[in-house]
Design brief:
- By secondary structure, the chain is an alpha+beta fold.
- About 20% of the residues lie in helices and about 30% in strands.
- The strands form eight sheets. A five-stranded antiparallel sheet has the order 3-2-1-4-5, with no helix packed on it. A five-stranded mixed β-barrel has the order 6-7-8-12-11.
Length: about 550
């Protein structure tokens, strides 16, 4: 049957509103059902698991525990007291399950990796990926990080689950009487030896190579002193204490363990000339001891059972033989350290200042500096120069262009001139092309460059790290002229970041600068200059480190 056109219009007019009403009704229903579903979800019990926490208190209806975030309390129904390491399950902030962990072994932590931990006399144990550490000394419990551990000395209680370490308890203070030093490979650089020989105190030779290792992965030599014979035939200064030879996939590793005072006796002549004044040497001994004790907690070599190495990454050790005066400086400062707020400070030191030392601002962006108190590292003026802020170009030029009277004046690096060649082939950013010019775009109040802009053919790079500024600019360095007429062509870094660009001509850049090293803490030449004026070692230390106390550890 054929529908008249008028009826079609009427049906269309009626149908569209009906369809719209139906669609709206469906949308409202779906929205309501969606909201109802969300409410149902919200109303479902919320379960939270707390793994390997330390329970510090438990009453009939409340439990307190410590984790990395701090101290927490949850409700529950507890018929028996609970303490120590446990896993907790809570629903809506009410504890429903408790799994205590009572199995443990006690011993000294020898070394550790991401997968395992070696306990003295108990061997190698697997570990969880995340192992919480709880300091339980002094009747208080707090979560600490791995920096609280000292390999070779920390006595731990290792809480076990399925023969795997799941938590560590620190229950006894360390004596911190010894230190373990990684003996680096002077032939090839780095810490690994492809082959090496050791002569013990009985003149017995112990040889290690990739094809022979006396049938063991680790050997501890106790009959010292030891001489390390390197691949080129050179022989080290004798090492006292014990020497551990560890076989790794990359090669052999040597670790020397000595008592702390023996270590300082090996550092002092390697870090400061024995011709320096006794009071300066004593100041250096205190700095080296304080620094060494702080670095015991360094974890970079923990997998090898070492605390630090024997290079300038930490402190140079056993590279120059001790003498009567260096041994005397160690003896007259035995056990003495610098503290602030009852904590041993990190005694940064360096060779020479240009007359001004640096504040910690120079390293403000380094991860190792963030969230630490270095308020004792304040910039010092060690000259007769009247202005303390020399960040401006004109005042800095007036400062650096003359050899001012100051504590560091006898250092060969008190003032220097460095010549750079823009044509020198260097390892740099290939896509940037050849270096065209250099600009000092920011310096601090002590005159040290905080920002260096290096302009290349195809772009520029801005360096703000003191070490990078000296390193990357140093790639173009051809020679350094010292005030005594000596020319140095063997230095791959700019002596310090305290310099100005004095001339650019014919593809060459001339830097006028002063000082050697980072400039933070005690200047060694400055300390000797102070000693020559009659200052005692405690006066020297209190000049370079602000608000500290000289005390026995």
């Amino acid at each position: 049957m054929k529908i008249p056109k008028d009826y079609k219009k009427i049906l269309l007019m009626i149908g569209i509103p009906v369809i719209l009403v139906v669609i709206a009704t469906i949308a409202i229903v779906l929205f309501y059902l969606s909201g109802k579903t969300d409410r149902v979800k919200e109303e479902q019990p919320k379960e939270v698991k707390y793994a390997n926490v330390y329970v510090v208190g438990c009453s009939e209806n409340e439990i307190q525990f410590v984790d990395r975030e701090g101290v927490h309390s949850l409700n529950g129904n507890f018929t028996e007291p609970v303490s120590g390491i446990a896993d907790l399950v809570a629903v809506n902030q009410v504890v429903t399950e408790i799994h205590t962990k009572s199995d443990s072994v006690a011993g000294v932590l020898e070394s550790y990796s991401d997968q395992s931990m070696v306990v003295r006399e108990l061997g190698d144990w697997k570990r969880n990926e995340l192992v919480p550490i709880f300091d339980c000394k002094n009747n208080q419990v707090q979560a600490v990080d791995f920096n609280a551990l000292v390999v070779g000395q920390t006595k731990c209680r290792f809480v076990m689950e399925d023969n795997c370490i799941c938590a560590i308890l620190l229950e006894e203070p360390e004596e911190l009487s010894t230190i373990r030093v990684m003996i680096t490979n002077k032939d090839q650089g780095g810490i690994f030896y492809e082959k090496v020989s050791v002569l013990d105190g009985n003149q017995k030779e112990h040889s290690y190579s990739s094809s022979f290792f006396n049938g063991t992965e680790k050997e501890v030599l106790t009959e010292g002193p030891f001489l390390v014979v390197r691949e080129d035939g050179s022989v080290s200064i004798p090492y006292k204490g014990t020497l551990t030879v560890l076989h790794t996939e990359q090669g052999y590793v040597l670790v020397n363990e000595v008592d702390m005072e023996t270590y300082i006796a090996g550092v002092l002549p390697s870090e400061m000339p024995r011709t320096f004044q006794l009071e300066a040497l004593k100041a250096q001994a205190v700095c080296a001891r304080s620094y060494g004790l702080k670095q015991l907690h360094h974890q970079g070599y923990a997998m090898y059972g070492a605390n630090l190495d024997d290079t300038t990454n930490f402190q140079v050790y056993n590279q120059v033989e001790a003498s009567e005066i260096t041994n005397l400086a160690v003896e007259q400062t035995t056990h003495q350290v610098l503290k602030k707020d009852d904590q041993i400070i990190t005694c940064f030191y360096f060779s020479t200042s240009a007359g001004m030392t640096n504040s910690i601002e120079l390293w403000k962006d380094r991860d190792s500096i963030v969230n630490q108190d270095f308020s004792y590292l304040v910039a010092k003026n060690a000259t007769a120069f009247e202005q303390s802020d020399i960040s401006g170009n004109e005042v800095f030029h007036n400062f650096i262009s003359v050899a001012l009277d100051g504590f560091d004046k006898n250092s060969p690096f008190y003032r220097w001139t460095s010549t750079l060649s823009l044509d020198k082939e260097v390892e740099t950013e290939e896509e940037l092309g050849k270096l065209k010019s250099v600009e000092v775009t920011k310096r601090n109040a002590s005159g040290y460059v905080l920002e260096l802009t290096m302009n290349y053919e195809k772009g520029k790079k801005v360096y703000t790290d003191e070490n990078q500024i000296r390193k990357y600019l140093g790639q173009y360095q051809e020679k350094i002229l010292l005030p005594n007429g000596q020319v140095r062509e063997d230095m791959t870094m700019i002596p310090s970041a305290c310099f100005e660009i004095s001339e650019v001509k014919d593809g060459m850049i001339t830097l006028s600068g002063g000082g050697l090293g980072h400039g933070i803490g005690m200047s060694q030449y400055g300390a000797n200059g102070m000693a020559e004026t009659g200052c005692t070692y405690d006066e020297i230390l209190n000049f370079y480190y602000t608000g500290v106390t000289l005390t026995e550890r």
